[in-house]
């Protein structure tokens, strides 16, 4: 149980030097800059290495300024990256074209390898950008930034509620697992896993009942369907400089490739 | 000042037809602290949810000078502060500060005045340093006190607390009691915690089976073991009610 809640805490905890220039930026600057970088990377055609290198260098500079260590980046990225790469590894075997190499009983195709490398580069840039955003911006200010960027209030509220109740739900899962383990539940074959399905159903019912109680409590404090406006942000020159500097290399390189591709 | 709660023949059935309240007559005067005691399923929480119009049954109910009805809901919710049993239900925002300003902002206060109210409410519950903390970082006792602050910040005329001492360790319970005792104003506390009722409230009402079974000075009701036993209530073994009430008088 401890490991589970520790995990969710690690995913949300701010890292690096909390007083760094990056941590102190307006959350909107970080949202727009990093999102811009990800859009550039994702929209780039296969094998356009200079663009990926420019994105990676920009991210490395942000990480260095924020004093977020490569170890922290890796420990937070690997969950998502491992999943994406596991799927992408099949591509060189199935996509034909280019030079073919024999790898034991498997045939690896050159075009497939290019796809694999491009997918790996794009997903690494996307995940590391998201991890850096989360590591340098406390979640409440991220929400404040989203609201200030005119993201619909209801979406921001949903994100806020998910963040708040993720901890509550994780605690509930932990207690239910402890209760199962306390009665010597150790699934050894798939049939015994049925208890986990019941746990999931129980969790859904509890979450549903809690949602009703939260809503009643919100109404009791005068909630009428609209959230109060969040506190305004005050951007400074540093925020504009950050966005421009972050995209300074990647955007021109991407544009040079032609937007039609 | 007139009555804060004025209920006549209040009746309520759950959607499945089971009766929860069967004709409640209750008068609570301004400034009174009343404990609502009773076994589980007696209708305590149902009664509490009537006080701000969350549930509406038959009969007449006037709370804080407002007739309870669909048209008066906004007014009613500004005047009646409900503190729910599980603080995780009440604290839904990412930070304590945002949560405590939520109510005042809904009342139409601007950001600065809402922040002033929040600071004052957090001071009243002795949680001044918690403004930027997340609810999940707080202990159960701290969460309970912050939940009370979220309601105090609305400056309600009636404060209603559902099982405020549930799931608290002795120290957190003592701190909560001190905070509640320091608050002025009309208070209705539903609880099984009879010592808490004795220390906090001068009057008690026993609710059982959706009816009011007894209503009188807290010391009289709690000093009647037969009455308590008839409604599945009991003081902790070895509890000295006289000493506690003596302490209350000398205070």
Please describe the biggest sheet of chain B, giving its number of strands, its sense, and whether it closes into a barrel.
Answer: 6 strands, mixed
Counting DSSP E segments of at least 2 residues, the number of strands of chain A comes to: 2
Q: Name the helicity range of chain B.
A: 25-40%
- Secondary structure class of chain A reads mainly alpha
Q: How far apart are the first and last residues' alpha carbons of chain B, in Å?
A: 26 Å
Radius of gyration of chain B: 18 Å
Segments of chain B where pLDDT lies below 50 for 5+ residues? none
Based on Cα principal axes, name the global outline of chain A.
flat
The whole-number mean of residue pLDDT values of chain A reads: 85
CATH class of chain B: Alpha Beta
Q: What sort of overall outline of chain B do the alpha carbons produce when their principal axes are compared?
A: globular
CATH fold-level assignment of chain B: Rossmann fold
Percent strand of chain A = under 5%
Low-confidence parts of chain A: 1-11
Strand count, sense and barrel status of the largest sheet of chain A are: 2 strands, antiparallel
The number of E-state strands of chain B comes to 10
Strand arrangement, major sheet of chain B: 6-7-8-3-9-10
Secondary-structure element order of chain A, N to C: HHHHHEEHHHHHH
Quick structural gist:
The complex is a heterodimer of chains A (261) and B (251). In chain A, 69% of the residues lie in helices and 3% in strands. Chain A has 261 residues and is mainly alpha-helical.
């Amino acid at each position: 149980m401890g490991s589970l809640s520790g995990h969710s805490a690690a995913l949300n905890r701010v890292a690096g030097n909390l007083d760094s220039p990056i941590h102190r930026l307006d959350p909107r600057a970080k949202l727009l800059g990093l999102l811009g970088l990800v859009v550039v990377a994702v929209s780039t055609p296969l094998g356009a290495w200079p663009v990926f290198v420019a994105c990676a260098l920009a991210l490395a500079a942000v990480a260095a300024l924020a004093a977020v260590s490569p170890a922290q980046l890796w420990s937070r990225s690997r969950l998502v990256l491992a999943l994406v790469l596991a799927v992408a590894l099949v591509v060189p075997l199935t996509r034909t074209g280019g030079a073919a190499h024999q790898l034991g009983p498997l045939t690896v195709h050159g075009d497939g390898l290019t796809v694999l490398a491009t997918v790996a580069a794009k997903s690494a840039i996307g995940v590391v950008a998201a991890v850096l955003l989360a590591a340098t911006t406390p979640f409440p200010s991220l929400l404040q930034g989203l609201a200030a960027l005119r993201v619909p209030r209801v979406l921001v509220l949903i994100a806020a509620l998910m963040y708040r109740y993720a901890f509550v739900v994780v605690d509930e899962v932990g207690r239910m697992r402890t209760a199962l383990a306390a009665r010597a539940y150790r699934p050894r074959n798939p049939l015994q896993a049925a208890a986990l399905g019941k746990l999931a159903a129980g969790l859904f019912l509890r979450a549903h009942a809690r949602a009703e109680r939260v809503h009643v409590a919100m109404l009791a404090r005068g909630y009428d369907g609209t959230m109060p406006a969040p506190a305004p942000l005050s951007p400074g020159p540093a925020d504009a400089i950050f966005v421009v500097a972050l995209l300074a290399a990647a955007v021109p390189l991407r544009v040079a490739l032609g937007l039609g591709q | 000042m007139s009555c804060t709660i004025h209920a006549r023949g209040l009746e309520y059935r759950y959607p499945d037809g089971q009766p929860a309240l069967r004709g409640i007559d209750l008068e609570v005067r301004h400034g009174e602290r009343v404990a609502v005691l009773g076994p589980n399923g007696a209708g305590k929480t149902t009664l509490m949810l009537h006080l701000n119009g969350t549930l509406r049954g038959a009969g007449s109910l006037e709370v804080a000078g407002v007739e309870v009805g669909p048209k008066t809901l906004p007014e009613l919710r500004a005047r009646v502060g409900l503190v729910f049993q599980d603080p995780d239900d009440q604290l839904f925002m990412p930070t304590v500060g945002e949560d405590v300003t939520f109510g005042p902002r809904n009342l139409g206060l601007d950001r600065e005045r809402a922040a002033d109210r929040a600071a004052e409410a957090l001071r009243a519950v002795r949680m001044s340093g918690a403004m930027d903390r997340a609810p999940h970082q707080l202990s159960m006792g701290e969460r309970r006190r912050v939940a009370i602050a979220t309601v105090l910040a609305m400056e309600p005329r009636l404060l209603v607390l559902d099982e405020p001492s549930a799931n608290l360790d002795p120290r957190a319970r003592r701190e909560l009691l001190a905070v509640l005792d320091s608050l002025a104003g009309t208070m209705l506390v539903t609880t099984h915690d009879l010592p808490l009722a004795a220390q906090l409230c001068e009057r008690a009402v026993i609710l059982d089976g959706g009816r009011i079974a007894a209503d009188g000075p807290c010391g009289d009701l709690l000093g009647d073991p037969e009455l308590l036993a008839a409604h599945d209530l009991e003081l902790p073994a070895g509890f000295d009610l006289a000493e506690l009430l003596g302490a209350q008088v000398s205070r």
